[in-house]
Amino acid sequence: MNKPKLSFWQIWNLSFGFLGVQVGYSLQNSNTSSIFESLGADVSHLSYFWLAAPLAGMIVQPIVGLFSDGTWMRFGRRIPYILGGSLVSALALELMPNCPRLLAFAPLAMGVFILLFMDLSFNVTMQPFRALVADMLDDSQKTQGYVVQTFLINLGAVAGAVLPLVMTWLGVSDEAAPGGVSPHIAYSYYVGGAILLLTVLVTSFKTKEYPPEEFARYNDLSEEKAGSESFVGLVRSAPRVMVQLGITQFFSWAALFLMWTYLKPAITGVVTDHATGEVLSDGATQTWVGVLNGIYPIPACIVALFLGRIAARCGNKPVYAGCLLAGALGFAGVYLLHDQYALMLPMAGIGIAWAGILAMPYAILSRAVEPRRMGIYMGIFNFTITLPQIVVGLAGGAVVEYCFDREAADMLALAGVFMLLAALSVFLVKEHKAG
């Protein structure tokens, strides 16, 4: 028995809370390196601090997926985890700018602790959204569901990235006291936390998940629960397409991790003011990093509007590969260009890649996974996101120190190579057709 078709706005509400989560992630991605540098971190050590995010995802997402697969409460299977995680995420966003006050004698240590705390809660909130789309939609609507989710994610990314700039427009200072966080970044985190909570509440109260009996009927499952299986057994029995997608995911997420870690130090002292040709100050450079991180989700939003239709006509794999190739060209442009406005163009290419990365792997994978185990397999699939970040995080400091003589810009060139390899590896994927 097929699941009932959902309206556009019902599909919208499924993922609306992801917009708020992405506001928080965007603030983190744009500002963590700068905050840690202000707290005393060395550029060659930045990749180590960024390991908090993938480590949290690797631990939390499979656990949340496994438990949510077997959960049924008043609010449903996935919603309780989304709602609970959002409360902790908002608290973490409020605490991050106050590291120097919370632990004055070791603010960097406090920053690392809060970053880990933040990432754990982000992952608790985020993981169920992937499974929720697959739970509520049949195969004919899944691509649309993940495309809408991609649009909302990128809308949130734009909002989070430009929040610091908006704060400066409102008169908030972008100058930080020695060893402190600038006010415009601090207020951005406070506003981001509020947005996260409000959007998650919309999803929580506007989405009615299928009760167990309906879920079993819509997915042609017996009423008996699937037999328990060890985590190792689940990994071994994972759909082959998950492994194939994992190769592409490794290269694409390694490239993204390099950008998030090294974009700010790579363009500091290099990017020039368009009007005067002078090198931007450190504070202005940090603000411009936020602008650039707000640029690439905009073309991702636009591409997401057409991605489903293009994939239906041309196939998922060519579209996916084309998106990643645009990202490789984008990284080459970021490496070569120095004018502040010229840098916007290659960020658009990275945005096209971002749209493909957020939508296509999940649309492909969701058709190959047994519905009752959607949560745990979406959690296991997150390994293909976290492992490349851990590898790059562990090796990144040594690479920039010993291979590139502390030239952070060269790490962006390496990111371009990784994204090109990701595009080529898409053709190793053998996808299941929609049922």
Topology:
Elements lengths: L7 H31 L7 H4 L2 H18 L9 H17 L3 H4 L4 H30 L2 H31 L13 H24 L5 H7 L12 H6 L3 H28 L14 H14 L1 H18 L1 H21 L7 H23 L7 H8 L1 H21 L5 H17 L10
Largest sheet report: none
Report Rg. 21 Å
Task: Estimate the mean pLDDT confidence.
Answer: 86
Apparent shape: globular
**Strand proportion:** under 5%
- What would you call the structural class? mainly alpha
Give the topology string: H per helix, E per strand.
HHHHHHHHHHHHHHHHHH
Helix content: over 70%
- Helical segment count: 18
Number of strands: 0
Q: Enumerate the spans where pLDDT stays under 50 for 5 or more consecutive residues.
A: none
Distance between the termini: 12 Å
Description:
- The chain is mainly α and 435 residues long.
- 74% of the residues lie in helices and 0% in strands.
- The two termini are 12 Å apart.
Provide a short characterization of the protein structure.
74% of the residues lie in helices and 0% in strands. With 435 residues, the protein is mainly alpha-helical.
Defining traits:
435 residues, mainly alpha, 74% helix, 0% strand
